[in-house]
Design goal:
13 strands, alpha/beta, single chain, 3-stranded mixed sheet, 8-stranded mixed sheet, 312 residues, 33% helix
Length: 312
């Protein structure tokens, strides 16, 4: 086991000291606040976990809101709240917000950079629960439940030399870890051995066509046009399932015409592409055959019990 270095100890101590002594006092809302964040820089499973938790809470409570940055969106406005059924432009809000709206239609969605303002506004309009997506590094809102999502969690160091947002010691700030089915807990155990750990349940995969209707898996070699952080892992999973594919290595949240044209060109050349739901929301490839790979996942019962206890 790698020993904790002096730099790691110093960095963690400095961060927490600055947060505690010089940061402004966290805002306490009348709503319950759940933060879903990560220490990994991308590919931790925040979006699917946010969808699962949002869907569960919308069924249980009357008003649930989520705060999103709207990463990858091209817009001239900022800090807007969209009620259930209220339309927005997918290009403006980004692929993540578009997918969450489609998957959880009863959710109130707040999009913008000022998370404090949006959280307060959601609380003012009567949200029972406010979900702060990607909020683990956000210290100005008092959080009732701090959830950290992890996926393939290999040992690393923070930016710019590594793939972490902060040192692994930060895991100890979380109330629990909620991991994707392929997660590796070894690095977490090193930093926070006693933290509560839950793992998403996997029930296999489904396939949808470009109209989001059920279809069979692809039977020919196709390009994987997944603009997600862990596309390499997805490629390996697909090959292990007998799907013949090759990765186009599209960047996470890629929205430029350059990447869309690449996807269209490959769809024409190979008779289709393999994408995820997030990609389908982003590309909107009407008229081009697509195989949308859908991972069937659900929240484990022990986590739901833990969530309900913390929402009381």
């Amino acid at each position: 086991m790698k020993k904790t270095g002096l730099m790691e100890i110093f960095y963690s101590f400095l961060r927490e000291s600055l947060r505690r002594h010089y940061g402004k006092k966290p805002i306490r809302l009348s709503s319950k606040v759940i933060s879903i964040g990560s220490v990994q820089a991308g590919g931790a499973g925040k979006t699917p976990i946010s969808i699962l938790i949002s869907r569960y809470l919308v069924e249980k409570y009357k008003n649930v809101g989520i705060v999103l940055l709207g990463y990858g969106g091209k817009r001239k406005w900022d800090n807007k709240i969209f009620g259930p059924g209220q339309d927005f432009c997918d290009i403006e809000v980004g692929d993540e917000a578009s997918l969450i709206k489609k998957e959880v239609p009863g959710l109130i969605i707040a999009i913008g950079k000022d998370k404090d303002y949006l959280c307060e506004e959601l609380s003012k309009i009567g949200c029972d629960v406010v979900i702060l997506e990607d909020g683990f590094q956000w210290a100005s809102i008092e959080v009732d439940l701090n959830i950290v999502s992890i996926s393939g969690n290999k040992a690393s160091i923070p930016f710019p030399k590594g793939l972490l947002r902060e040192w692994g010691s930060s895991y100890s700030r979380a109330d629990c870890l909620l991991s994707m089915p392929n997660a590796d807990f070894s690095e977490v155990k090193r930093w926070a051995p006693s933290i509560k750990k839950f793992k998403i349940k996997s029930n296999g995969n489904d396939w949808l066509d470009e109209k989001w209707e059920p279809t069979d898996p692809p039977s020919t070699r196709l390009p994987l046009a997944a603009g997600i952080a862990n596309s390499k892992s997805l490629e390996e999973e697909l090959k292990s399932e007998g799907i013949d594919c090759f990765n186009l290595n599209i960047p996470d949240h890629a929205i430029s015409p350059k990447w869309k044209n690449l996807v269209i060109m490959n769809a024409r050349s190979y008779g289709g592409v393999i994408i995820t739901k997030k990609d389908a929301s982003r590309w909107q490839l009407k008229g081009f055959p697509c195989w949308i790979r859908v991972r069937k996942i659900e929240l484990p019962n022990d986590f739901l019990k833990f969530l309900n206890e913390n929402m009381m």
